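Hi R.,

As promised on Friday, here is the backbone we talked about, encoded as structure tokens. Could you run it through your design pipeline when you get a chance and send me back a sequence?
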């Protein structure tokens, strides 16, 4: 059985919890991510589904 524990921000250097279960990042990093998407909408198409993947790769690298 899986516990519904609070999700942590996917930024490797960040240890905050996400404000929403669907969110990948904490409130602060979500704002950074969203502002990045709005300024680079071409990248957004790739960035949205890739966000958890990229964070995974980054955090794996760090280990
Ligand atoms: Zn964060």
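Update: got your reply. Pasting your designed sequence below so it's all in one thread:
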């Amino acid at each position: 059985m899986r516990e519904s524990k609070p999700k942590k921000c996917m930024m490797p250097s960040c240890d905050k919890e996400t404000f929403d279960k669907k969110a990948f990042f904490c409130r602060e990093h979500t704002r950074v991510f969203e502002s990045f998407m709005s300024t680079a909408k071409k990248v957004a198409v790739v960035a949205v589904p890739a966000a958890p993947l990229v964070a995974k790769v980054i955090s794996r690298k760090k280990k």
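One thing I noticed while checking it: Residues 9, 11, 14, 16, 25-26, 28-29 surround zinc ion (CB under 6 Å).

Thanks again,
M.
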